[in-house]
Design a protein that fits this description.
heterodimer, A: about 260 residues, alpha/beta, 2 domains, nine-stranded mixed β-sheet, 13 strands, B: about 325 residues, Rossmann fold, seven-stranded parallel β-sheet, five-stranded parallel β-sheet, 8 helices, 18 strands, about 30% helix, binds flavin-adenine dinucleotide, binds adenosine monophosphate
Chain lengths: ~260, ~325
């Protein structure tokens, strides 16, 4: 089974700092990591490879240093990776990103399965996975929580939806976006890290992939960001101390009144 | 081609419309009025009656396009996308809004690639730009740290998904009239590559936390699985669903479908109650847009208090039983 996993390099957001004046993220000193939700896809891919053989190739579109994300995925157990990089890709929205990645995946060659993260923690759209499936015209399932079984022709997956889990049988090739429940990502091993250092990671620009540059970057992107604001984080709500039973009773009374005033009771 | 009109993508299940369909009409009506155009709803379903879809008209739609076929009984990306793309090619709407549900967030990107349309995910606000008439779409990004406003100046249609529960459903006005247009399903649009072969409904407790008005969540501060009973009781009293932090889910105190946050679900309920949750940025990313937030935590410096409208700094094992008891009396005395 040949598997391709698009992974995105994102800023580590657990201690994100914002420039209050410009409303942009302070990137200095912020570490770049593999989109944490893509780790579940990587783990699911490696497990499938361990059971059925084949290869796992990661692909990332981003700046030159996104190579680090690819090497990290190789250190976890992926076989190789491709970096899609060049100025022509800058400013791509989800349409242009999905287009560029789908063309790049065609160049990688025959595949059975593409695994994506549910969404990236920076852009946070979850649109690129379904978008790639649309461009490549392969079967699509999103929010997949479990791979039930698979053979050469078909994969059976469980999908987490609002009112339960549905089981889908999908003809291969297919694209699946996964949720956290699907796996518990392993850590890179020492041997993996050595292998990652030795593996060549090709860098493809638009010309190498043979894609229409008019469909890339800002030119190819239907959407434009027109304004960025920082929402006010602190709501300045009423905070009531309740260190002992007496004050707890009073705090609960206050809360009940508050909930009544908002018609929740 | 000239593109005109606003569309909403209604959601149906088992012959009934889901409430989010009416929420979309609240947004759609406002946009259509500002654009001085008509509002249509699209219903892709199996076995849905005129009487049922007429509710969309009573709640604000001028027209309803219905495609009704057994192939549309359950959502599959390919077939739904084929049908919607065909409708867009035929009628050329200017704006399409869908729900940010598991199906809406799958269907819309699939369609937007094929129509080369701009699509903005998970919007919390939609408006029309003065002068240009472009759709202005506002959405949180980077874990809710910023609010970005996005538009699609040149490509049409302009498409967005909006969070369930982020607006009220449009009210019924029985005197409203409009047309129901039933369109035949073209069998050539049926794509058999993905088949739905099973379904396991959520058992017992409400876990559809994304469409709940009230979500009561517990975190690591609960100390063990059994103590979720406190959360369950409060949720029951407030008529809400049960949420959880990742730490509670990872400890298997409760199932993953309950997880709120970056690697779980994003919820926008009217009331969110967090007990024993510290309010890490990844948790906040999933609940920050709730209308009202109540927090109970023993640590006065817990981040959760920054987003709380009402916070109690105290021991949840003291506060929750008191609260549950008070609520029993409130309900009893009514
Ligand atoms: C990539 C990534 C994705 C993540 N995704 C998510 C996600 O989707 N959802 C999520 O929730 N987290 C997520 N996290 C984890 C997140 O960073 C936090 O670790 C997690 O939210 C903490 O859960 P908690 O608040 O229950 O536990 P803690 O942070 O341990 O907080 C427990 C709180 O309970 C309070 N407490 C203890 N005892 C009592 C008592 N008796 N009475 C009252 N209060 C008490 C404590 O003061 C403390 O504030 C993610 C992290 C990463 C890196
Ligand atoms: N630049 C990128 N390079 C590789 N994969 C990507 C890129 N952007 C998004 N993806 C994939 O698409 C998923 C959803 O991303 P997004 O639509 O940006 O939320 C991610 O989890 C990745 O699997």
């Amino acid at each position: 089974m040949n598997i391709v996993i698009p992974i995105k390099q994102v800023p580590e957001t657990s201690n994100v700092k914002m420039d209050e004046k410009t409303g942009t993220m302070v990137r200095e000193g912020v570490e770049s990591i593999i989109n944490p939700l893509d780790l579940y896809a990587i783990e699911a891919g490696i497990q499938l490879k361990d059971r059925f053989g084949g290869t796992v190739t990661v692909i990332s579109m981003g700046p030159p240093n996104a190579e680090k994300a690819i090497r990290e995925a190789i250190a976890m157990g992926c076989d190789g990776g491709v970096l899609v990089s060049g100025r022509e890709f800058a400013g791509s929205d989800t349409w242009a990103t999905a287009y560029a990645l789908s063309e790049s995946i065609k160049k990688i060659g025959a595949f059975d399965l593409i695994l994506c993260g549910e969404r990236a923690t920076d852009g946070d759209t979850g649109q690129v996975g379904p978008g790639i499936a649309s461009f490549l015209d392969v079967s699509l399932a999103t929010y997949v929580s479990r791979i039930v079984e698979t053979d050469e022709k078909e994969i059976v997956v469980e999908r987490l939806i609002e009112d339960g889990y549905e089981t889908l049988a999908m003809r291969l090739p297919a694209l699946v976006t996964v949720v956290k429940e699907i796996s518990y990502p392993r850590l890179p091993t020492l041997r993996g890290k050595q292998k990652a250092r030795k593996t060549a990671v090709p860098v493809w620009a638009a010309a190498e992939i043979g894609i229409d540059a008019a469909k890339l970057g800002l030119n190819g992107s239907p959407t434009r960001v027109v304004k960025i604001e920082m929402p006010k984080v602190t709501r300045g709500g009423k905070i009531v101390p309740a260190p002992d039973e007496e004050s707890a009773v009073r705090a609960v009374d206050g809360l009940v009144d508050f909930l009544k005033s908002k018609d929740f009771i | 081609m000239t593109y005109a009109g606003v569309w909403t993508i209604a959601e149906a299940r088992d012959g009934a419309l889901r409430q989010v369909s009416f929420e979309l009409l609240t947004r759609g009506r406002k946009l259509a009025d500002k654009r001085n155009t008509t509002l249509s709803s699209v219903v892709l379903a199996s076995g849905i009656s005129d009487e049922t879809v007429r509710e969309l008209i009573k709640r604000g739609a001028d027209r309803v396009y219905v495609v009704d076929d057994p192939a549309l009984a359950h959502f599959t990306a390919e077939t739904f996308s084929n049908v919607l793309v065909k409708l867009i090619d035929t009628y050329a709407p200017e704006i399409i809004i869908a729900a940010a549900t598991t199906s809406g967030r799958t269907l819309m990107p699939h369609v937007s690639m094929r129509t080369h349309a701009g699509l903005t995910a998970d919007c919390t606000d939609l408006d029309i730009e003065e002068g240009t008439g472009n759709l202005l779409q506002t959405r949180p990004a980077i874990g809710g740290n910023i609010l970005a406003t996005i538009k699609t100046p040149e490509f049409r249609p302009q498409m967005s998904t909006v969070r369930p529960r982020s607006t009220k459903p449009a009210p019924v006005d029985a005197s409203r009239t409009g047309e129901i247009v039933r369109l035949p399903f073209d069998p050539a649009l049926r794509d058999g590559r993905v088949r739905r072969i099973g379904f396991k409904a959520n058992e017992g407790e409400e876990v559809d936390i994304q469409s709940a008005d009230v979500v009561v969540s517990g975190g690591k501060g609960l100390k063990k699985a059994e103590n979720f009973a406190l959360i369950r009781e409060l949720a029951e009293k407030l008529g809400g669903s049960i949420g959880a932090s990742r730490d509670a889910v990872d400890r298997a105190w409760i199932g993953y479908p309950h997880q709120v946050g970056l690697s779980g679900k994003t919820v926008t309920p009217k009331l969110y109650v967090a007990a024993g949750i510290s309010g890490a940025i990844q948790h906040l990313a999933g609940m920050k847009t709730a209308e009202t937030i109540v927090a109970i935590n023993s640590d006065p410096d817990a981040q959760i208090f920054r987003v709380a409208d009402y916070g109690i700094v105290g021991d949840l094992f003291e506060v929750l039983p008191l609260l549950n008891e008070r609520l029993s009396r409130e309900v009893g005395s009514k």
